[in-house]
Structures
1.
Amino acid sequence: QESLHQSLSVDLQESLSMAAKPKLHYFNGRGRMESIRWLLAAAGVEFEEELFETCEEFEKLIQGGTLMYEQVPMVEIDGMNLVETRAIQRYLAAKYDLYGRNLQEHAWIDMYVEGLKDLSDMIMFFPLSLPEEKEMNLEHILERATTRFFPVYEKALRDNGQDFLVGNRLSWADIQLFEVILMAEECKPSVLTGFPLLQEFKARTSCIPTIHKFLQPGSQRKPPLDEGSIETVKNIFKFECGMFLKNMATIVAEY
């Protein structure tokens, strides 16, 4: 009887753990956590955030032993401390049925998401450009967006003949594309000129109730980095100016 009681107690604790809201550990800004926020929000999942604002707070998190590689983002969910952005996103996409219906759809979603990561990384690191680099870097982002990346997704929507990139329902790839479109429009509002299907996709996706809710003021969506938050990020992670070109060198080397 005591053994049964202990077993039931363990089952209850596991059940409570599974039911708890995911907790996101990161700095108070977008970075690599923002796509994770988007995925949870689009799935209609409420989440909590434990945000740090100083290097000392980040070091305390590291010393706690929950960060496998001593780096964030980290998400507490289902009794686990998940790290590595792609691992977190794949887990969430699978858990909340945003990862397609079969292996072929998984593969298409992965390909689309990986391409979008390259573009989003360019935009994410852009605020860390040196002043004399900014104009050149912005031109580079817009040129890549309009000649290399957006044509792929315009064609994907045309070829699929549906409202979505893969299959006939919302997936991780759609959520990522929508986020990156908004990021690109922050660089240049007219960036979708010449991409009518992407324009329709953006308008359609913004009306999905969970996504519409995340777009509203007061949500957990983070604003673009400003000068003050850039200094905070640089102090926490020991970033330096000129990170854009260093990051782009890595991306170019992967092609």
2.
Amino acid sequence: PTEISDITEIFVNYVEGSLASLPWSDEPLLAETQKIKEELVRVNQLGFWTLASQPALDGAASDDVTYGWGPRGGYIYQKAFVECFVHQSLFPGFLSRLQNASPRITYYASNGAGDFISNAVGAQGDAATALTWGVFPGRAVVQPTLIDKMNFLAWRTEAFHSWAEWADMFPRGSPQERFLREMAEKCWLVNVVDNEYRNPDTIWNMFQ
């Protein structure tokens, strides 16, 4: 890659399945993302390069072949979320939409320089948000997937380091190497969660 459109093409090809991996993911997308594949393609075409995502679920059977886990006879719930890189040219408009969205939309955003913005960190500190949970007979609610500030910032360090690792694959001073290091300096990592899991499409309105 030597320009932004090259990065967009790489991410779109990954979501569509013609590219098997990315510097941030060694494997193709999980089967559950088929439910939101069209939206993911659109989002990436707009320049929001997605690293992770999941569809909203409102009580899928725990033995569902795609979404199920845990003991039989239970139900699975998920909040829709999307994590993506956003170039600094798109970030101000994107942040404005997030800040003016419904309070049920929470987000974390940070760049490689360490700047951090969030509406999920309040006066009481940073509360973890459950992204996926299960309800099973005879058991307490199980919450296997959480997001909080500490985990997001730890992943941020790794995510931005991957830009550098990608750049290192090219000769020093080459157009590709210089461009990829520039991307690490000009992108924000953003995690967006829609806490209303019964309205699965609202989160996509953030990406215009």
